[in-house]
Design a protein that fits this description.
This protein is α/β, with parallel strands linked by helices. It is built from 11 helices and 8 strands. The structure holds zinc ion (ZN).
Length: 291
């Protein structure tokens, strides 16, 4: 299976602050080291620019990323989703990111945009307006064929860190490696069956503490299982992606599952046999009442 690696949300995860011991620098360094070690060059980071306004010195994160041979794509300025704002506001957010990320985007082999939470718009008018803007601005859409829910593992990981629960951390690391390989295999098989031929996949990780800890072992495991990492532009050029942002959907799903779901074909989202593991990790990350 041929896949391109992508990372989202540089320079700083927009949803929650990093726990003690982790910074945008330590996380980016860990990701770059893991990518280097496995000879995975030219990885696109779909990035936001809000953090640059808060702390302009965070531009060093993009400098490090690009100096290490990787690329930057547009992922909006403030990471609001198209379902939460008007098409006009969303377009303004794309343009703000275009402006602030320009020094690094211009060093990339193409202009790529990734929708926040891969949401294309919940009304036809919004979908069409934003898609037309991207087309007119020369942006190609960067999709995802497999994600591994590492944000769910990360929530549990941060809880375990706070509680000093080393057994919990060990469980999270082992279960994630087992799950991510199973998910990779399941999605590869399911998308091939659904589309009728092998496709060039695009996988996704985020700049999260758990990803910083696990990416080295995960890339290792994937390579040993026969995964071939290819440049993003090669994957994105697959005509398979021609239907990006082509339909109205309010589902939070990877590219081909969204298209399948629109046509009434419901493909399980979690690799068979891992539903209980996923559920357990989800519960580990939830707030537990103390009263
Ligand atoms: Zn994002």
């Amino acid at each position: 299976m041929k896949v391109a690696v992508t990372i989202d949300d540089l320079p700083q995860w927009p949803h929650t602050p990093y726990p003690e011991g982790y910074t945008p620098d330590t996380i980016t360094d860990a990701l770059i080291t893991a990518l280097d070690k496995h000879h995975i060059p030219g990885v696109f980071a779909f990035s936001n620019s809000w953090a640059l306004i808060k702390d302009p010195a965070l531009s060093r994160i993009f400098d490090c990323w690009v100096d290490a041979g990787h690329y930057v794509g547009n992922h909006t300025h403030s990471h609001r989703t198209l379902h939460d704002v008007s098409a006009q506001k969303y377009i303004e957010d794309i343009e703000l990111a275009s402006h602030h990320l320009a020094p690094w985007v211009f060093r990339s082999p193409g202009r790529y945009f990734r929708y926040t939470l891969n949401r294309w718009g919940e009304t036809e008018a919004k979908r069409r307006t934003v898609k037309a803007h991207l087309d007119a601005s020369g942006y190609s859409i960067a999709e995802v064929t497999t994600w591994f829910y590492e944000w769910t593992w990360n929530r549990a990981y941060e809880k375990c860190l706070l509680a000093g629960d080393q057994d919990g951390i060990d469980f999270l690391k082992h279960s994630y490696l087992d799950f991510s390989l199973a998910q990779m295999n399941f999605d590869t098989q399911a998308v091939t069956a659904w589309y009728g031929r092998e496709i060039r996949g695009i996988i996704l990780g985020h700049n999260l503490p758990f990803m910083a800890e696990i990416s080295d072992a995960m890339f290792d495991l994937f390579l040993k299982a026969g995964v071939e990492f290819i440049p993003f532009e090669e994957a994105a050029a697959d005509p398979f992606y021609d239907q990006a942002a082509s339909i109205v959907s309010d589902r939070f799903l990877v590219y081909w599952r969204k298209l399948a779901s629109y046509r009434g074909q419901h493909i399980p989202v979690i690799a068979p046999g891992f539903e209980a593991t996923y559920q357990r990790v989800k519960e580990m990350g939830q707030n537990t009442s103390t009263d």
